[in-house]
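Table S2 (continued). Query chain:
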Amino acid sequence: MARLEWDITMRPPFIALAAAMALLVVPQMIQAATDTTPPKPRRPQEEAIAAVPLPYREQAVAFDAAPGVRLAGTLTLPNRSGRFAAAILIAGSGRHDRDETVADHKPMLVLADALARQGYAVLRYDKRGAGKSTGDFDAATMADLTSDAAAAVAYLRSRPDIDPSRIGLVGHSEGGTIAAVLAAKDPHLAYVVMMAGFAAPTRTLVAEQIRRIDVVNGTSPAAAAQSYGLNIKLFDAIAAAKDQSDAESRVRQVLAVASPAPSAAEADQALMFARMPAMRFILAYDPTPSLRRLRVPVLALAGSKDLVVPPDINLPALRKALAQDRDVRIVELPGLNHFFQTAQTGAPQEFSSIEETLAPQVMATMMPWIARHVDTGRR
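Corresponding output:
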């Protein structure tokens, strides 16, 4: 599968399929734009972590997740003995290393540091096929990545310095959804933090994010709406397919009757989606059943300027799906984008120019909530 590094500001306005990878490869699109926009801005949060001795220990760890898949990561531990409450960090979509490095930002590093300074053990790991982890990222679907997260839980439960009753999951974007899916199967987890995890049908979110990013980038609302209508038809066709061949056939049928007719390049983009296992899985995925089964404490965070997982669409679906879970807090943080930075518009082009990696209100909201669920024994 080809590496996807489109500049979203250059894509054609008709199908605009490049941006539909936002749930899957927004980081690569951001990096492509960053690479052509020197000089790179400072990253003060990461610089502050590197500038002083750390008040916690770091261990390089590795654990087996599947045949041929050995995941490498970093485990931070308090500078004392004991059995610690722990958090596992699950990165969003894309071929991420353990820090979820995007446009020189390292949000999982910043989050791990904040949690470690509160006295928690924190595990973050390179995705399969990324960093020092083995395996084939290109062939992996969200189901495979969920199995990888389950392996991380099993690894921590095997350690004598981790309290198995106080392990929680913190996931961003697709990682937040993975955390919820895993917790629905494993009610012994202490909590789940979903940072822009999706709850609405994913093909709706993908089509909507394209429309909104197009408009922010200057496309007329009418043209963006036309693209939205075609994208919904394409995504429904891919979601309904039983395999790659069927998906390609269905996409060709949609393109054959599209008006105006797509260019060859646009048609190739649509067919690329049909050929990608991860995209076929995500477009067919409905997060609702797993969310309805959740019975562990859930903190769901959203940025009001998130164009990738728009909160006005996603949060109502999340509230409805989690209605039977007795311990849920849903917080929309004003002014933050998909990566929980303070933003002007929320457009992906802004991500690299913003010096902030994680807005302070993210930690201010998350830390006391986690403390209530693991430090007092409340489950």
